[in-house]
Amino acid sequence: MLKGIPAILSPQLLKVLCEMGHSDTLVIADGNFPSESMGRDGIVIRMDGHSAPEVLEAVLELFPLDSYVSQPVSLMEVMSGDTVETPIWDTYEEIVKRRSGLEGSAIGHIERFAFYEEAKKAYAVIATGEKALYANILLQKGVV
Fold first, then answer.
1. If both were cysteines, with which of 15, 29, 99, 140 could 66 make a disulfide (CB 3.0 to 4.6 Å apart)?
2. For residue 105, what pLDDT is reported?
3. Does the model's pTM come out above 0.90?
């Protein structure tokens, strides 16, 4: 056991976060995201019993966001014609602001298939049990 480490963060995830360097990316994926196929060449960490906001909260307690880019956080855009509501994005914005001090303008949006391409290049994908649609989030690591 360690002091000051959120209990939700497994030893495997802590190792991955520590291994990552400046500009490496991390995906926190919802339950519908094809985590295993997107993370085929990288690392997939299963956290099926947890929501994406609780994972984001814990990760950002330790993970610095990249201050050298304008948008170190990216969300998957809603597909044109899809009428899905995305209240989880407000939750993400509040967590990012509280944990990193960055404003909502630090959060960008990436078209769905472009998001998949970025996810394939990510250092790791965290597969959560999040049920909200369009709840996938990409984080770019900064420096301490």
1. 140
2. 87
3. yes
Q: Is 92 a catalytic residue?
A: no
pLDDT value at position 6? 94
Task: Tell me which residue of 62, 25, 54, 22 sits closest to 42, measured CA to CA.
Answer: 25
Q: Residues near 131 by Cβ (< 8 Å), separated by ≥ 6? A: 30, 31
The 10 Å Cβ neighbour count of residue 129 is 14
Catalytic one of 24, 50, 109, 116: 116
Is the pLDDT score of 23 beyond 90?
yes
4: left (phi over 0), alpha (psi -120 to 50) or beta: left
Coil vs helix vs strand at 109: strand
55, two tokens: 């994972």
SS3 29: strand
Half-sphere exposure of 140 (CA within 13 A, CB side): 16
Amino acid symbol at 42:
G
Catalytic residue among 66, 92, 123, 134: 66
In a domain? residue 114: yes
Q: What is the CATH number of the domain that holds 81?
A: 3.40.1650.10
Count of domains for the chain: 1
